[in-house]
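This part of the workshop introduces the protein records we will be handling. Each record describes a single protein and holds just a pair of labelled lines. Instead of coordinates, the fold is spelled out as a row of discrete tokens. To make this concrete, we reproduce a full record directly below:
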Amino acid sequence: MRTMDAATLAEWAGGELQGDPQAQVGPDVVIDARKATEGSVFVAIPGERVDGHDFTGQAQAAGAAAVIGTRQTEAELAHVVVEESVAALSRLARQVVAREQQRGLVSLAVTGSSGKTSTKDLLAQLLEADGPTVSPVGSFNNEIGVPLTACSIDAETRYLVSEMGARGLGHVAWLCSLMAPSVSLVLNVGTAHLGEFGSREAIAQAKGEIIESLPADGWAVLNADDPLVAGMAPRTSARLAWWSRTNWSTQLGERPAGDLFVSASQVQVNALEQYGFVLEVERDGQQVSLPVQLQQLGSHQVSNALAAAAGAIAAGCSPEQVASSLSTATARSPWRMEMSVREDGAAVLNDAYNANPGSMLEAINTLGRIARARRDEDSSSRSFAVLGDMLELGDDADELHRELGRLAVRNRVDEVVAVGSFAERIVEGARQAGGSARVAERDEVAGSLTLGRADVVLVKASRGLALETVAAALLAGKSGVQR
């Protein structure tokens, strides 16, 4: 945010100032005292394990000039005392965004059951080619992450990109009230968080809130291939932008009405699972076709790229610049389809950040294609899938985990190693399909695998299982004896 006086900070955060009203604070806003900088505002948030108020002295020592909290502390800083710290952070973010939108800031929001973070990272890189852009690293998509990211914008920021998760009805609408997006992207409606919502239709209702807040001159960027997403169109008066991997003219007939349509033709893949295609952009009766070669791995990245392209073009970027930037964009957030090759040749595909049925399907299919390419080059190549729980799936969890095992066997995975509460179900599915599978404790996985020079391992589970530790151990060579 821009530097301001403490009186304005108190007004915007909705609190009572205790300290010098003329004290200059900002530009940084932090919730971790270790990240405090000169002049920064430290938001003290009480937690289950630690209370941010206990670290105001550390924030002061690092240079902080003010603290937003629920009580006065011993730190010699300007204090803005509020009833609830997170709510105050939200109020501050709303004011920061509103001021910058008055001078032309464009706010974009992304939601979906899967692919949010990867698409957000792609979208940010496309926008950066056109102007200064603020976007969170990782999945900073909740009631703390979204406003904290918003407070990072300043007078020079042209684009703000927000990723929005949903834990219930009204959550996305609340986040939109902070960001006031003029371009909103809905990627898909899957089964992630099915246990919380009860049905995909309920998930669609929650995700669709992201387009209901759009102004009439805004853009709703929708997935034409997902019926539940396409069905959201009547919920907004904004202009419609569509993206699709499907050739509507030959496969689906008349495409949905809208002002912008982005699709892919001539899709190809190389041995590293990197996809290339021709980006097709149709707007105002004009069509342009541009080559794209993605750097990220996996078929799902084509969909992510099309969604990001549609969002960036709707925001004002040229199709030519978008195609060029897509071809140079890299993965920014960790543990998402990260392919690393050890010195001995063994490869580890680390997709351990999170998991749901849709992303598991893409990851295991990607593993299968990489393994086939490696076998073509070296007949000794084997593939392994270290799979952990997919959380919050509700009553269908057992069968969905069995399907993981069956899916791995269909992709000719040589061995499935299952971790977590649903490990037995994964193993059941794999053995039902005639494959080899076993249950293991997380910290024992790496040592139990014997990797050869051409082998490839996928590591994937929901965030709670922290399987990135398995990937790190494998990359460090902490596996069985080499053959």
